[in-house]
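F.,

This is the one I mentioned.
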C-alpha cells in the first residue's frame, strides 16, 4: 500500500570500547585453552563446507552445499524461513556433522576428529542465539562471565571488571544483578552479545541478532558487530532477514536456496546476480534522496553495465525544532469521526508501582483500517495494547472499544467483548500438545462451531497461509516463521471484528514478511477487519498502514498517514523511523543538542 525506502548509514568509526579490548587481549588470550591458532590468512577460510548433505526423516535440508567463510570478514547468510540456515550454523560450530561431505573447522574435518578435539575446536567459536539462550537462574553478570569462568583459568575477581566494562559499553550499567526475566527483549539481546564476545573468540556465529529489536537498537547491535570485527579481528557469520542491516554489515553475502548456496560474493556482486529471491529480499531497501528507486531493479542490467550501488541520504533534520510546542501535545490524530472509530484512548495514564508507563496516551483506531503502533522497546506499546482489549484498566483517562467504556463493564461483559478480537502473539503461543491443524481450529471448537464448518474453514485457512503440507506436524517440528503463520491462521479463523498483531513479522524473511503483510491487508479488505499492528518493522509498517502512530516513553508523538509521518520534523520520530541511515544519524545529533533521551 505504502512504501518508504531506507538507506545504509555510513559508519565513520566503530563504537569505541578500546579499554575492554585491551583488557580482553591482555587477560583472556593467554589463559584460553592451549590450541594452535589458525593462521590469520585471508586466503585460508576459517570454516569450509564442501558438498555438505544433511537431512532429517528422509528430507534433505542441505544438498551438496559448498561455502567458504573467509578469515576476518563478516559473512551474512540470507534465505527464506525453513531453508536450513540454523542447521548450517550448527554445522559450522560442530554441533551437527554432515551426512555427506566435509565441514572443515580451522582446517580439521568435524566428522573425523575425536570428540575431545572437536570440543577444543568449538571453544574457539561462540554463538549468539536468536532466542538469547540465557540461564534464567543466573544474574546477568554471571551469564556474561560464564564462558570465561568455565573455559579459562581466570579468577572471578579478574573476570568481573571485564563484565562490568562490557555492561557499561552496552548501556546496561545497572543490569548486572538482575535476572534475565527482568530484562526487555532488547536488553537480553545485548547480554547475549556480551557473553558471545567476552572470550575474544576467533569466530562468532550470530543467529538473527537483530530479531525483535527496534530500529535504533538494531543500529546499535550492527555497530557492535562491526566493532568486534575491526577491534578484535573476529570472523563473523550472521543469519539475517534484515536487508538494511545486511548492507551495513556484510563483507560477503551468501544466498541459501533449495539447500544450496546460489549466489555468493560482495553485496554489490550478489545484487547484480539477477536472482528473483535477491530482488524480493532487497525490494524495500533503497535511496533516501527524494526518489523511490529500489536497490535492485526489476530487470537488472548485466554485471558489466550495472553501475556500482551507492546508498546515501542528502536530507537532514530541521535545525530549529520547537521542543516546547511539540510537548504541548501530539500532532493531529488520524482524521476520522467518532462513528468511524472502533477503539479510542483518551488521556490514558498507567503506573506500575512508581514506574509511570503511559503518560496521557491519546489514540484513535479507525474502523476498517490498519493502524500500526511503533516505538522503542519499553515505550509502552504492549501496555497500550492490553488497555484496548481490557486486560488492563487505566489509572487515569478512558478507554473505549466497540462503543463501550471498558471501565463500566463487568467480568462477563469483558469476556464477551474480547470474543470480538483476534490476537496474533509475538511468540505464536501455540499449544504444543496439538497438531498445527488442531491449533488453528481450536478457537472454533471451543466456541461450539459444527464439525463440518470447522473442517471447511480450517482447510481454507491452511491453504491461504500455505500451511497444508504441515497440517499434521507438531509445533515443535516447524520453524519460528512457520509458527508465526500458524498463530495468524488461528487468529483470523474466527472472523473477528478487530485483530491485534504483536510483532507479526518478527523473525520472518522478506518473502514471508510480504506474505504476512498481504494477509493483514486482505483481512482488512475482504472481511472488513480492523487491524492494530504493534511493530518494529519500518518497511512493513509503512507498506500496510493507513495510520502509523509513534509512541515514545509513554506518549504519542505523532499519529499520521505513512506519508505524513515521514514529513514529521520531530527528531525523536525521525531517529526511529530512519535508524540506520544518514537521516537517522542527523536526527540523533539533533536529539543530543536538545537534551532528549534516547530509546
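My design for it:
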Amino acid at each position: 500500500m505504502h512504501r518508504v525506502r531506507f538507506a545504509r548509514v555510513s559508519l565513520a568509526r566503530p563504537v569505541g570500547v578500546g579499554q575492554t579490548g585491551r583488557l580482553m587481549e591482555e587477560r583472556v588470550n593467554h589463559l584460553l585453552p592451549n590450541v594452535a591458532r589458525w593462521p590469520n590468512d585471508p586466503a585460508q577460510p576459517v570454516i569450509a563446507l564442501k558438498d555438505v548433505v544433511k537431512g532429517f526423516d528422509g528430507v534433505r535440508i542441505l544438498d551438496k552445499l559448498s561455502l567458504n567463510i573467509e578469515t576476518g570478514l563478516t559473512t551474512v547468510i540470507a534465505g527464506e524461513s525453513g531453508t536450513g540456515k540454523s542447521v548450517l550454523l550448527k554445522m559450522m560450530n560442530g554441533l551437527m556433522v554432515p551426512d555427506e561431505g566435509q565441514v572443515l573447522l580451522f582446517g580439521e574435518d568435524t566428522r573425523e576428529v575425536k570428540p575431545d578435539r572437536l570440543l577444543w575446536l568449538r571453544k574457539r567459536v561462540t554463538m549468539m542465539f536468536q532466542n538469547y539462550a540465557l540461564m534464567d537462574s543466573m544474574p546477568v553478570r554471571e551469564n556474561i562471565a560464564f564462558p570465561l569462568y568455565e573455559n579459562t583459568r581466570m579468577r572471578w575477581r579478574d573476570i568481573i571488571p571485564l563484565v562490568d566494562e562490557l555492561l557499561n559499553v552496552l548501556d546496561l550499567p545497572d543490569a548486572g544483578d538482575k535476572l534475565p526475566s527482568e530484562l526487555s527483549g532488547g536488553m537480553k539481546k545485548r547480554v547475549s552479545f556480551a557473553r558471545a564476545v567476552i572470550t575474544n573468540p576467533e569466530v562468532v556465529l550470530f543467529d538473527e541478532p537483530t530479531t525483535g529489536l527496534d530500529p535504533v537498537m538494531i543500529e546499535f547491535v550492527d555497530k557492535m558487530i562491526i566493532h568486534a570485527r575491526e577491534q578484535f579481528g573476529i570472523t563473523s557469520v550472521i543469519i539475517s532477514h534484515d536487508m538494511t542491516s545486511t548492507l551495513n554489515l556484510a563483507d560477503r553475502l551468501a544466498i541459501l536456496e533449495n539447500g544450496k548456496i546460489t549466489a555468493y560474493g560482495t553485496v554489490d556482486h550478489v545484487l547484480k546476480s539477477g536472482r528473483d529471491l535477491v530482488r524480493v529480499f532487497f525490494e524495500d531497501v533503497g535511496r533516501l534522496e527524494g526518489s523511490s528507486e529500489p536497490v535492485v531493479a526489476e530487470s537488472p542490467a548485466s554485471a558489466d553495465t550495472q553501475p556500482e550501488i551507492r546508498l546515501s541520504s542528502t536530507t537532514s533534520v530541521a535545525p530549529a525544532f520547537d521542543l516546547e510546542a511539540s510537548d504541548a501535545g501530539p500532532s493531529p490524530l488520524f482524521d476520522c469521526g467518532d462513528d468511524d472509530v472502533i477503539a479510542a484512548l483518551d488521556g490514558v495514564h498507567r503506573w506500575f508501582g512508581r514506574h509511570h508507563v503511559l503518560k496521557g496516551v491519546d489514540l484513535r483506531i479507525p474502523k476498517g483500517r490498519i493502524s500500526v503502533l511503533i516505538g522503542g522497546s519499553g515505550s509502552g506499546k504492549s501496555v497500550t495494547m492490553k488497555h484496548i482489549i481490557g486486560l488492563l484498566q487505566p489509572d487515569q483517562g478512558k478507554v473505549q472499544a466497540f462503543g463501550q467504556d471498558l471501565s463500566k463493564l463487568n467480568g462477563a461483559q469483558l469476556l464477551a467483548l474480547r470474543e470480538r478480537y483476534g490476537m496474533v502473539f509475538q511468540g505464536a503461543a501455540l499449544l504444543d500438545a496439538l497438531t498445527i491443524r488442531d491449533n488453528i481450529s481450536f478457537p472454533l471448537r471451543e466456541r461450539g462451531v459444527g464439525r463440518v464448518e470447522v473442517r471447511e474453514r480450517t482447510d481454507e485457512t491452511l491453504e491461504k497461509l500455505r500451511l497444508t503440507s504441515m497440517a499434521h506436524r507438531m509445533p515443535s517440528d516447524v520453524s519460528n516463521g512457520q509458527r508465526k503463520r500458524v498463530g495468524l491462521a488461528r487468529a483470523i479463523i474466527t472472523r473477528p471484528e478487530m485483530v491485534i498483531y504483536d510483532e507479526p513479522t518478527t523473525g520472518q524473511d522478506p518473502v514471508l514478511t510480504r506474505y504476512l503483510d498481504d494477509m493483514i491487508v486482505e483481512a482488512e479488505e475482504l472481511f472488513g477487519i480492523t487491524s492494530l499492528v504493534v511493530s518494529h518493522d519500518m518497511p512493513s509498517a509503512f507498506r500496510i498502514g493507513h495510520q502509523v502512530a509513534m509512541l515514545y516513553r509513554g506518549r504519542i508523538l505523532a499519529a499520521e498517514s505513512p506519508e505524513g509521518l515521514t514529513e514529521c520534523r520531530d527528531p525523536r520520530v525521525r531517529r526511529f523511523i530512519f535508524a540506520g541511515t544518514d537521516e537517522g544519524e542527523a536526527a540523533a545529533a539533533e536529539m543530543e543538542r536538545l537534551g532528549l533521551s534516547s530509546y
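The longest strand covers residues 341-352.

Talk soon.
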